[in-house]
Design brief:
Immunoglobulin-like, 2 domains, 3-stranded antiparallel beta sheet
Length: about 180
């Protein structure tokens, strides 16, 4: 009787296992077909549309990036307002530490609204954009960025009244952090 009970219990367990596998297969097919449908039914943005939306284009030049972000506004020297710490020589361009500390206010009538990090020789020059509110306390950023090659790194602080303050620091990169061939 015990052997018969065991046999009877395993048959429904097998059919339940098969039903679960069938359900998972069906779910995978629905998800995959949904991804294909997305690309067939909805056209992707073309470069002209990307430019109208303010999005970067592949292999965008740094001058085009600056024009896209800031228009024709001039960049004022910000050496006395923005302190940028960045190594002069980065052994690995894949992770270059940078810290930005600004004496510019983040609240009041005229205050910092954004800080941008821009690399002159990266394929896509704008590396990061940080936004600030009065709740931020102060305009301070510490992060790591990827650098393709030895380049100038620009830090631009954008004020809410449209004024732009920039600091540029050169960095010598010994090993590229971008477009590296796979290591064997």
């Amino acid at each position: 009787m015990c052997e018969q009970d065991i046999g009877e219990r395993s048959a429904p367990a097998k059919s339940l296992k098969m039903a679960r596998r069938g359900f998972l297969r069906m779910l995978a097919m629905v998800v995959a077909s949904g991804g294909v449908f997305k690309y067939l039914a909805m056209p992707t943005a073309v470069p002209a549309q990307a430019m109208q939306l303010g999005l970067p284009l592949p292999d965008e030049a740094v001058d085009a990036t600056l024009k896209r972000l800031f228009g024709n506004r001039s960049l004022q020297r910000g050496d006395d307002r923005i302190k940028v710490e960045l190594p002069q020589i980065a052994e690995d361009g894949g992770s270059v530490a940078i810290s930005i500390d600004s004496s510019l206010p983040v609240s009041g009538a005229v205050h910092v609204s954004h800080i941008y990090i821009i690399s002159d020789k990266n394929r896509r020059p704008m590396l990061a954009k940080f936004s600030f509110t009065p709740d931020s306390g102060r305009a301070f950023v510490a992060t790591s960025v990827r650098l393709a090659t030895s380049t100038d790194v620009r830090v631009v602080a954008e004020m809410n009244d449209g004024a732009l303050y920039a600091v540029t620091k050169p960095v010598r990169v010994t090993i590229s952090g971008c477009d590296l061939p796979p290591q064997s």
